[in-house]
Amino acid sequence: MNRWKTHSLEAFNGVVKEISEIIASNKGSLATVIALHGDLGAGKTTFVQELARIWGAKETVTSPTFVIQKKYVLDSAPFNELVHVDVYRLEESSEVGALGWNELLKDNESLVCVEWAEKIKDKLPKNTVHVYIEWVGEEERSIEIK
Question: How many C-alpha atoms does 60 have within 13 Å on its Cβ side?
Fold first, then answer.
């Protein structure tokens, strides 16, 4: 478990860079899944945007709230693709199957970031990296990975 506190967007992005190195070093034979936890506005999408920038996405990353899933090509190793999933609108975890969830998990070149991951906790692989983001003051965020 690692924990950081940030006071600015620049510091937040620096923490995401550190976490990206941890994630890259733990890449395995299946997709790497990051479960993002935090209240509305905590910074889950901002976290994914910075990961995408670090690994060379050319497109602008936006929240997939209404389409549920978006894919982005990554130009830098260790991943070829970032899959950004927002399961907030799902009523049952079994609905994630309609997104091709099992196929996504088989591709070790994919980085899968899931916002509101607690809604599908029974569908997350055992090696999922959990990132908890929360505001702890007006200008300070706490970021923790498990």
Answer: 1
| Residue reference for tokens 């510091």 | 11
* Domain carrying residue 39: 2-145
* CB-based contact 26:101 (threshold 8 Å): no
Domain at 52, CATH number: 3.40.50.300
What does the mean pLDDT of the chain come to?
A: 92
Nearest Cα to Cα of residue 33 among 80, 75, 85, 89: 85
**What pTM was computed for the model?**
0.92
Q: What is the pLDDT of residues 79-125, one digit of tens each?
A: 999 999 999 999 999 999 998 999 999 999 999 999 999 999 999 99
Contacts of 114 (CB under 8 A, 6+ apart): 33, 34, 35, 36, 85, 86, 87, 120, 124
| Cα–Cα distance, 27 to 34 (Å, whole number) | 12
d(CA 92, CA 107): 24
